[in-house]
Amino acid sequence: MIVRTLQEAEQSERRVVSDGWESTRLLLKNDNMGFSFHITTIYEKAELNLHYQNHLESVYCMSGEGEVETVADGKVYPIQPGTIYILDKNDKHILRAKSEMKMACVFNPPLHGKEVHNAEGAYELEAEEVSDSK
Predict the structure, then answer these.
(1) Domains of the chain and CATH, by start
(2) Which residues, other chains included, contact 5 with Cβ-Cβ below 8 Å and sequence gap of 6+?
(3) Which of 30, 82, 83, 92 could be a cystine partner for 71, CB 3.0 to 4.6 Å?
(4) Which of 59, 42, 24 is nearest to 98 (CA)?
(5) Where are the alpha helices (DSSP H) in the chain?
(6) 3 state SS of 44
(7) With the CA atoms of 27, 32, 36 and 38 taken in that order, what torsion angle do they form, in degrees rounded to the nearest 10?
(8) How many CA atoms lie within 13 A of 131 on its CB side?
(9) Per-residue pLDDT tens over the stretch 52-72
(10) Digit-coded pLDDT (tens) for 76-129
C-alpha cells in the first residue's frame, strides 16, 4: 500500500512549478500503477497552449473557474467545480483560468515526475524521475 499526503508532497521534489501552473505529483511511474495522479494549480489569468501528444489525460476541476478550447474545432467549454474534461484523442487545447483553479489530473502513460511542457505544450515520454518513492 502507498500512503501520501498532499501537504508532504508539496514540500518535496514532487512539486513542480512552471509558467502559469504548478503541480504536485502524488503518484508517478516509479509507483508502478500504470498512470500518474497530480493535484495541479492553474494560476489566475493563465493561458496555456497544450498538446499532450504522448499522453492521455483526464482533468477534474475541484475549485476555480476557467475554460478549455479544442483547437481543431474552436469549441470552448466552461470549467467550474465538478467539471471533468478528458483528452482522449491527444487533443490540442488551450486552457484558460478566470480564477485560480485546482485540478485533479490523471496521465497515461504515467509521468516520471519532473516534466514541464515542451515548445509544443507536451510532456516528453522520457524525463528525470523523482527519487522519493514515499
Answers:
(1) 23-108 (2.60.120.10)
(2) none
(3) 92
(4) 42
(5) 6-10
(6) coil
(7) 0
(8) 0
(9) 888 999 999 999 999 999 999
(10) 999 999 999 999 999 999 999 999 999 999 999 999 888 888 888 878 777 667
